[in-house]
Amino acid sequence: MSDVRKYAVDPGARLHLRDANDELMFADDAKLKPIAVNLHGPGSKQYAKAQAAQQNRMIDKLKRKGKTEQTAEQKAAEVADFLTDCTASFENMEYDELQGDALAHAVYSDLSIGFVAEQVNKFLGDWSNFTKGSTKT
Questions:
Q1: What is the pLDDT of residues 112-126, one digit of tens each?
Q2: pTM score, two decimals?
Q3: Which residues pair with 87 in a beta bridge?
Q4: What is the rounded distance in angstroms from the CA atom of residue 40 to the CA atom of residue 37?
Q5: What is the mean pLDDT of the chain?
Q6: Which of 10, 18, 19 is nearest to 39 (CA)?
């Protein structure tokens, strides 16, 4: 017999962000300061809480309107809310003077840098990014 928990994933992981040209992003010309995001993964309590909040927003919407159709703006806002809840912190990134959840929500809501939200969402959807010893960039 083997304890299945030996296959448990780490609760979080770091993603070195890429720009729209699929190049790694850095905050300096010497490429010593990577622009990265630290995320709560699918095996964490924070991720479970974010998923529950996302489902509760959908249920509330159904109760109010009785329909599931949503505009592109509503869908983008929902994704930004979920990704914000899954974000522990950013490294070497600024957006106006924002910090914490306000920074995350602004980044994930900005369509001109939509590639950031897209890659974070994709990263979160792959359990292998949270395996022990995983060093994804």
A1: 999 999 999 999 999
A2: 0.87
A3: 39
A4: 10
A5: 91
A6: 10
